[in-house]
Amino acid sequence: MDKVFGDFTLTKPLGKGTLGSVFLAEHRFIRKTFVLKILAEELSQDAAFVKRFEAEVGALAALDHPNIVKIHNVSFADGQYFLVSDCIHSVKDEPINLSQHLKKNLSETEIYDILTQVASAIDYAHKQKIGSYLLAHRSLKLNNILVGRDRFYVSDFGLAKLVGEG
Fold it and tell me: Is 147:126 a contact under the CB 8 Å cutoff?
């Protein structure tokens, strides 16, 4: 695929969601792999959305918990905003989510471990203020829980609120 987008080379599409498209990408200069969530063009051109996005995304990037995917950067290229976050690799060295992981049989201990880590991330986030309100995920689902080599990560905190109703 290898398409240049800002300072990144998009190497593999990972999916598409409400906000836009998600890609595996390599930073062209530091040669590190990240995940880019490129916001849909219509969102990048929506003044109300851009205002909410700019006001709140800094606070989302400040989240610091071992079970929350870290947002490193927010940028703009080719008329679209995009988020740069950690690429979470599984033991198979590729990004997978909990929906994919649950296709194998898990022990009660493994299930407890997953739930404990996700609950810890949610508990931490629910104590964080974004502007005048407390943060809520608003779109927690199996696809937003990523399987790392040694832990589970919750992604896309607060992004559903930015899109708004409907």
Answer: no
- In this predicted model, what pLDDT tens digit does every residue of 14-41 receive, in sequence order? 988 778 899 999 999 999 999 999 998 8
Distance, CA of 21 to CA of 37 (rounded, Å): 6
Return d(Cα 88, Cα 103) in angstroms, integer: 19
Can you name the residues that pair with 141 across neighbouring β-strands? none
Nearest alpha carbon to residue 151 among 78, 76, 82, 66: 66
Tracing tokens 């407890």 back to the chain, one arrives at 112
Decide if 36 contacts 23 (C-beta within 8 A). yes
8 A C-beta contact, residue 15 and residue 6: no
pTM value? 0.87
Whose structure tokens read 């708004």?
164
Output the CA torsion 15→16→20→26 (10° steps): 10
CA pair distance 3, 98, nearest whole angstrom:
28
Closest by CA to 153, choosing from 87, 104, 72, is 87
